[in-house]
């Protein structure tokens, strides 16, 4: 029963986080949602104690890999090579810098396949990752508080 309680709380946290990002999309006229954020929710809400869910990994991994996608986009290479190079460099640099966040490995694909430009970094990646981190921290804090019954 405890496993199902944890699973339901993780699902509720992930649903809430994605709903908030979607709701803010409408208010800010920015796109705060991208597919890798769904995968980030798995780590942040189901495995919050994982090293892969540390705030520096979530934020650093997403920013670094999106930047690499934007830089690789500038190279005069066929798209297939850009996609491969973007993901490969993202994996290597996340590991080398100690900010591995597996969902962020998809960011170069998102950037390249949707032809994003530099504002994507500060209009989607940065605020989206920060909000996910804050919501996951809030959910973790709420789980640690004792339930009070009247």
Automatic annotation (TrEMBL):
The keyword Transmembrane helix appears for this protein: yes
Q: Does the keyword DNA-binding apply?
A: no
Kindly state which keywords UniProt assigns to this record, in alphabetical order. Membrane, Transmembrane, Transmembrane helix
* HPP transmembrane region domain ranges (all copies): 3-138
The record's InterPro entries line, in alphabetical order, gives: HPP (IPR007065), TM_HPP (IPR058581)
Organism's domain of life?
Answer: Bacteria
* Residue intervals passing through the bilayer: 6-24, 59-76, 83-100, 120-139
A Pfam family matched by this chain, by name?
Answer: TM_HPP
Protein name, entry field: HPP family protein
Name the source organism.
Aeromonas taiwanensis
